[in-house]
Design brief:
It contains 6 helices and 11 strands. With about 260 residues, the protein is an alpha/beta fold. Helix 1 packs across helix 6 (about 235-250).
Length: about 260
């Protein structure tokens, strides 16, 4: 059974959480689906409260793994503080799934009749601040004469409909698979005997997504990490996976400034 972390719905004043770290270490962590928060004025998008504990609202466990990993490595991180049901910052602006009207069987009434002006307002309010925070973090690394690796942290459901997903973790990539291949090989060598997805459970090529906009466009090394949600639903699993990725990534980083 999936062990889900405590309810995290909040109403933050800013749509982005930025964790400070040493940009000269050469790694930027990103968590695009960190939160299930919806500001009060959006009235929960008309979605029943119970739906906000599901993956349709956020990536269960991914935020805390990101925070713990950033702290262990002393690197910066950018996390959203709004639900993906409002708008998905891991989509291009023209992607039809940018604002979901129906998500895994759940109707999103607050999105059902949203028009171009409404989408533009959500882009201004949520999507653009996220992009600017990532741009600023990359600029910090470049100011330290470093071209940073960009690693984005996600989680996936143990089942797709009725089909069990065998992977504990997946590493996704598009055109530049260099960093992903190193991470995949390190995960396969883990003594826990992990089942590692190579561009699974999803394909990594998504035009306009975070990696495309912020890493591929700049020619920066990158990888998208997917951890199965039942493994990181609580603090013990979150710490275990943060430690695991810290061991993998630490040798790839510059020494602390």
């Amino acid at each position: 059974m999936l062990s889900v972390e405590p309810e995290i719905r909040t109403r933050p004043e800013h749509p982005v959480e930025r964790i400070e770290g040493d940009p000269s270490r050469g790694l930027l962590l990103i968590c695009e689906h960190a939160s299930n928060a919806v500001p009060e004025d959006l009235e929960r998008l008309g979605v029943p409260e119970r739906e906000f504990s599901r993956h349709i609202a956020y990536d269960i466990g991914a935020a805390e793994v990101t925070r713990r990993l950033a702290a262990r490595l002393g690197v910066p991180a950018v996390l959203t503080q709004f639900s993906r049901l409002i708008i998905d910052p891991n989509r291009g602006k023209l992607d039809p799934t940018l604002v979901m009207r129906l998500s895994d069987g759940a109707i999103v009434p607050g999105n059902a009749r949203i028009d171009a002006a409404g989408i533009a307002e959500r882009i201004r309010r949520f999507y653009v601040p996220f992009d600017r925070a990532v741009d600023a973090a990359v600029a910090d690394a470049e100011a330290a004469n470093v071209r940073p690796m960009i690693v984005t942290m996600h989680s996936f459901t143990p089942f797709w409909r009725t089909i069990a997903r065998p992977w504990q973790v997946g590493v996704l990539y598009d055109r530049d698979a260099g960093l992903s291949r190193l991470i995949i090989e390190a995960l396969k060598a883990d003594p826990a005997g992990l089942c590692v997805g190579d561009n699974q459970p999803y394909g990594g090529g998504l035009p306009g997504d975070t990696i495309d906009r912020h890493a591929t466009a700049r020619g920066l090394p990158n990888a998208l990490i997917e951890i199965r949600q039942d493994l990181i639903g609580g603090p013990e699993g979150q710490e275990e996976w943060a430690q695991r990725f810290a061991r993998i990534l630490e040798p790839m980083l510059h020494p602390p400034a």
